[in-house]
Amino acid sequence: MELFSYSLRKLATGVPLVIGVTLVSFLLMVYFGPDKTFELVGKNPTQEQIDEVRAQLGYDQPMVVRYAGYLREIVTFDFGSSDSTGEPISSILARTVPISLAVALPGFVLGNVLGVLLGLLAAFYRGAWPDKLIMGSAAIGMSISFLIVIIGFQILLSSSSGLNLFPVRGWSMDSFGEYVSYVTVPTLATVFVALGYNTRFYRSVIVEETTRDHVRTARAFGVPSLQLYCKLILKNCLIPIITRIMFSIPFVVISGSLLIESYFGIPGIGKITYDAIITGDQPILKAVVALTAIMLVLVQLLTDIMYRWVDPRVSLK
Amino acid sequence: MQLLLLLLVFLLAACGNEQGEDADTAGLRVYHHSSDGAPTSLDPVQSATLYANLIVVNAYDTLYSYKYLERPYALKPNLAAAMPEVSEDGLSYTIRLKRGVRFIDDPAFADGIGREVTAADVAYSILRHFDPESRPQGAWLWQGRVAGLEEWKAAGSDYDQPASGLEIVDRYTLRIRLLNPYPQLLYTLAMGYSGVVPREAVERYGREFGLKPVGSGPFRVVSYDTEKLIFEPNADWRWQRVDLAAEGFDPETQGFTGIAALDGQMPPFVDRFEISFIKESAARWNSFTKGNEIQYAGVPVELADREGRVLASKDPVKLIPEYAELYQVRSDIEAGFVYSAFNMDMEFGSDPDPEQNERNRALRCAMIKGFDWERRNDSFYLNLGVVFPGVIPPVVPEFDPDAPRDSVTRDVAGARRLLAQHGWTAEALPAMVYGTVGSVRSRQFYEQFRAWMMEIGFPREKIVLREYATFGDLNKQWRESQLPLISAGWGLDYPDAENTLQLFYGPNKAPGSNSSNYNNPEYNALFEQAAIMLPSPERTAIYRRMNQMLVDDCVAITGLSRTRIGVWHREVLMYPDNSIVGGFFFPFVALADENGLRLAAEPAPEVN
Question: Could you say which of B41, B471, B511 has the minimum Cβ distance to residue A50?
């Protein structure tokens, strides 16, 4: 009951957040985004044709009317059709979000799991050469541009001048083997870059925990190091770890990765969102922004519940 | 740790199927094409880009098409049974369709079976360009040319009402009535815009029709997304034995491709045609050289520019031996050109005061003299582009190879002299806003341009960069006549210089294609005079005179036709041409192996 009422309260307070995010993004789209009209009218339009298309796109409507329509779309989950292709937004999302998820999830999971493990290792050997090696590698991973990493991995692992082990481009999930074949290089590229950021963050969280009194006490009582780190320290670090992971989820699920999808030829939501941004395809942008905001609200709620599960002292009030 | 990681990578690699072939395509003849851009819609009324046009002319039938190999480009009947019967006054074109041509099967039709294509379908397809609901992009081709279309639109775009200029004489005969002679009409009927569509499918699929092509062309779309499109041959299409002579085959220039083996053979020569849309040149090149992915690509500029890396030489274009063994190469002048036009409605342009007008002209001429086309060609186009004066590019028959080249020859002293003679001091010079898309290459264009203008006397701060986040934003500025210089490219819609001369025809001013807003009554009169003339030496003379007027008035810094270098795997037999006028090569693409041409086990039935 407590959980239910808390959830309702939390969702209710999320409504202003969603409205705020959608309003700001809508204003940005309308006032600063590209004008879709001129892409749709072709090479040699007349003013009449331009006006017709503007009317069809709703550009001649007052801002308030347009935003009210946007809110209606959010409530009904019907964002219409893409201005570019005519495909219903729901169909685009249903087709592309699972693909982006299938691409991003392995890298996301691996990046965080390995980040925690390497962070633990670095914290355990704090100051010694393993710590320096891990942190140095993390710094390198963070310094190299993601684009360079992608091209480098593509050449190294996929191209005929490299190891030629994987496809350069393409996507298929018809079988597990095909899926592994296409997802491996994108995953490795993602992990290579994300691991640096994750490792540094988790190491600092773990190191901070090791300075606590209860850890010193446990050491004094002779608790073995493995048990100390994995049970005591790691458990107490779960709250910031959960926070970081949970708040990344909306962007993994909805936003996709433009670079990964472009370079590896993966028909995910990332590239579609990018194309929508540069061409001003507002129905797609509105859907992506709204869904990301809604997911953030849901993630906040889930995170709070997970806090309670991890730390019973947390009260959902 | 590293050993474990390496083992993991090899294990994962082993998990994957053999790349490039899966259970669905094993044993099939699959050709993997690539394009450096993607279409956003496959609806013929929205096929403005060459990416869309390439797909549309293969998924749909057009009345006419271009011969596969003949250069200069030449039309031939496609859906039309023959070339049209044209009335003596040139105002009436009677076109008879081939009989028995069917749309592909689709749930839009009764019992899901594609019905026969009729003259009514052709009329419907053109009328859609005058229905705002279609968001058409090709109305300009027929507006003011074909009778009754604007009236039909004004009356509410009711498809159940006829348009006077599109008379359905009988089930297979369409008569097009023109307001004035229109020599380019047949070219427009070979463009993707004129792809013939069935009304049932358009009404059933609505806005989604652009994703679900239902045509009668040589290919049907099996799947389509942002990364790839898959075609399969339309088994019901009117495949005929290849007659290379009829297609304009020139053994001397085209024999290297191996397509002579196709002569007399029965297409289709592929069972599946996959087109990958790859904008990133590095990814495209890696996929091409991998060997079992895409089989056609362009050579990235950064690789082509370094001799010995991919190209053994640029003139003539030759691959290094390692690549020459594996790939064919073809370099071709584009059907189009790049140029920069002055906005004649702004400070540098026309002025009602004759003296100021002349001063402005001198300023424009000085800027043209200051522009270094040779350097631009070398810096950005591998020194392979063809620089020419005016706006009649080399690929059209009206091109004049002997035209004076003063306007494309750099003359810094002459530029400075012009500015001095007309009082254009550093203080008097107006600021020139250089609008462009925000990209590295655009920035480089700007910096080069600024350096040249500084050499002729422009203060650095008077060549002002204004960057736009997207091409859409920049295009809007052009259409709304907000920028003094329009640096653009133009791809030919048809091989007739009228298509480029119309870029400066007064009534086409912004938001139309005449972004420079040039409005010279004499030029306009000549354009209108030539517009109703069939190709002839007289018409060519008028075109060239108009071209010279543009040069004399210093309306634009023009121009350069880029040279495209395409490479493809040797087992592919084709003569590719990805321009708007060249997209009809798909049905002739063939694959060979060590035994020669790979033919179908069961050839398609021949249709006469």
Answer: B511
